């Protein structure tokens, strides 16, 4: 499946339940845009059917905005925003606050001692751990665990979640149409006065998440090392979850500062899609969010990745079956070549008749699977990545050779127009399925509004794709799919003692 919207206008409108006339004008008429005085942007799309609405609230802050030594801060802050506020999550916040301050003081002392490593005073560490455990136990007497989630559940809420990426942090919920004011009250409250309670125990939870998803996962370990090799200057090379040494000692004070800096209405887009009246939504949002002050967002100064001057290779040893990741640097949207790579992606890996799947899996039988994607983000220049798993007794070298042969063909021979049209049809079917839901629409509207500053990129995108030709595909393959622009990471069997 592709990342972006790539479907003919009439089918797209039909999937939205909108009139099949005047595509751009009709869609733009139906999506209502508002902006509060504090900078919060609001998009509302009224849509019949289910008496519900879906909300995607995106903040323009992700792992790419972190400082050295503070990696993982955006992700851990996302976790903390589910802990409630001064009004939600506590039976007596004033009493809880006194204990929370004691926990924070002990946490600082404990981290300071632990950072000494082998020179740490073990007796002091143990005493601090015990004292912190006791105070935290007292604090928990006032904590109402998961109260926000419980309130949503009791009121018919579903899909209450959040996710952090390289580029953004997003909070989502689906509710009955008559619960709009409840949503506005809860969400404005956690934006206005969030409380980072149980921070140190949640930090341990994130460390366990890292162990599970990366350190104890062969594919996770391979991908982390691959991205770090491909981006040695740009922050895209840093994992979203953060490096283990940073997470372990990430100060709560730094998380608070990050929260105050980036969790601001003028750094946020909220999209609501469903059975709602746009003007009524705006009135409610203004009522609850309008008095939250905006913040001055720091300049987005990011180190540019230097042009790659030669192939980079890395081997990752792991007791697992071999895999290979092959990546090529490319420009991000809205550069024309970014559009071209959506076609290249489809030509190579979209479906059983795609070139790589057909060649490696069906005909040669040298691979179990092959896939491709663009990432790890979209705000800055990124990678086109191919992932393949060899079929024993074939090796990653066999798979690589076959992949390069197909890429060479793409750079030398024009893709038949019929094949290009087929790719567009496949993508159309994929995205129609995704856009039939309120949440799917809210996802895309919020994504493009945050990343491009204009959600209408959705409506222009299909027209830009239609302008592309097989010559564009060929030119992009020649320019980017070359050895000097290539990063390769292979998972190799760990050689154990005695073998």
Describe what you observe in this structure:
The chain has helices spanning 9-16, 23-30, 73-80, 93-114, 122-139, 147-154, 180-192, 199-215, 218-230, 244-248, 252-262, 278-289, 336-349, 355-363, 396-412, 417-435, 438-452, 457-466, 470-480, and strands at 31-35, 41-46, 52-59, 158-164, 169-176, 268-274, 312-318, 323-330, 367-375, 382-390, 486-493. The chain is of the alpha+beta class and 499 residues long. The protein folds into two domains: 55-89 and 144-289, Metalloenzyme, LuxS/M16 peptidase-like (Cytochrome Bc1 Complex, Chain A, domain 1, 2-Layer Sandwich); 312-493, Cytochrome Bc1 Complex, Chain A, domain 1 (2-Layer Sandwich), CATH 3.30.830. Strand 9 and strand 10 form a beta hairpin.
Fraction of residues in helix = 40-55%
Task: Find the structural class using helix and strand composition.
Answer: alpha+beta
Distance between the termini: 42 Å
Mean pLDDT: 92
Roughly what fraction of the amino acids lie in strands? 15-25%
Q: Could you please say which CATH topology of the largest domain applies here?
A: Cytochrome Bc1 Complex, Chain A, domain 1
Task: State the strand order across the main sheet.
Answer: 1-2-6-3-5-4
Order of helices and strands: HHEEEHHHHEEHHHHHEHEEHHEEHHHHHE
Topology at a glance:
Blueprint: H1 9-16, H2 23-30, E1 31-35, E2 41-46, E3 52-59, H3 73-80, H4 93-114, H5 122-139, H6 147-154, E4 158-164, E5 169-176, H7 180-192, H8 199-215, H9 218-230, H10 244-248, H11 252-262, E6 268-274, H12 278-289, E7 312-318, E8 323-330, H13 336-349, H14 355-363, E9 367-375, E10 382-390, H15 396-412, H16 417-435, H17 438-452, H18 457-466, H19 470-480, E11 486-493
Parallel strand pairs: 2-6, 7-11
Antiparallel strand pairs: 1-2, 3-5, 3-6, 4-5, 8-10, 8-11, 9-10
């Amino acid at each position: 499946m592709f990342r972006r919207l790539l479907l003919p206008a009439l089918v797209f409108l039909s999937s939205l339940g909108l009139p099949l006339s005047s595509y751009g004008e009709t869609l733009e008429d139906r999506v209502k845009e508002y902006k509060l005085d504090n900078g919060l942007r609001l998009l509302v799309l009224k849509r019949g059917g289910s008496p519900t609405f879906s909300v995607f609230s995106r903040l323009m802050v992700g792992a790419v905005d972190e400082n050295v030594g503070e990696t993982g801060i955006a992700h851990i802050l996302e976790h903390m925003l589910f802990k409630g506020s001064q009004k939600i999550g506590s039976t007596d916040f004033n009493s809880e606050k006194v204990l929370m301050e004691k926990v924070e003081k002990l946490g600082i002392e404990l981290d300071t001692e632990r950072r000494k490593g082998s020179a740490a005073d073990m007796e002091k560490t143990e005493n601090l751990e015990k004292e912190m455990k006791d105070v935290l136990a007292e604090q928990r007497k006032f904590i109402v665990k998961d109260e926000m989630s419980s309130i949503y559940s009791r009121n018919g809420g579903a899909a209450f979640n959040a996710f952090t990426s390289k580029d953004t942090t997003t909070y989502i919920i689906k509710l009955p149409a008559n619960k709009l004011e409840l949503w506005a009250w809860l969400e404005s409250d956690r934006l206005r006065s969030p409380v980072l309670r149980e921070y140190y125990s949640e930090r341990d939870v994130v460390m366990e998440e890292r162990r599970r998803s990366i350190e104890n996962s062969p594919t996770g370990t391979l991908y982390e090392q691959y991205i770090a090799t491909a981006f040695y200057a740009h922050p895209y090379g840093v994992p979203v979850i953060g490096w283990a040494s940073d997470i372990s000692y990430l100060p709560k004070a730094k998380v608070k500062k990050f929260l105050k800096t980036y969790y601001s209405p003028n750094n946020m887009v909220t999209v609501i899609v469903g059975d709602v009246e746009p003007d009524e939504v705006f009135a409610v949002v203004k009522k609850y969010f309008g008095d939250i002050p905006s913040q001055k967002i720091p300049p987005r100064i990011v180190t540019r990745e230097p042009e790659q001057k030669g192939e980079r290779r890395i081997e990752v040893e792991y007791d697992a079956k071999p895999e290979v990741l092959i990546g090529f640097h490319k420009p991000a949207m809205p550069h024309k070549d970014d559009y071209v790579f959506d076609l290249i992606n489809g030509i190579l890996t979209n479906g059983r008749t795609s070139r790589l799947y057909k060649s490696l899996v069906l005909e040669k039988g040298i691979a179990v699977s092959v896939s491709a994607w663009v990432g790890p983000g979209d705000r800055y220049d990124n990678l086109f990545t191919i992932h393949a798993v060899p079929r024993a007794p074939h090796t990653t070298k066999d798979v690589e050779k076959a992949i390069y042969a197909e890429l060479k063909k793409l750079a030398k021979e024009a893709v038949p127009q019929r094949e290009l049209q087929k790719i567009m049809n496949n993508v159309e079917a994929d995205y129609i399925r995704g856009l039939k839901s309120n949440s799917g629409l809210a996802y895309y509207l919020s994504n493009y509004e945050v990343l491009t500053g204009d959600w209408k990129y959705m409506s222009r995108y299909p027209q830009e794709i239609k302008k592309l030709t097989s010559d564009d595909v060929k030119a992009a393959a020649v320019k980017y799919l070359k050895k000097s622009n290539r990063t390769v990471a292979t998972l190799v069997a760990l050689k154990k003692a005695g073998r």
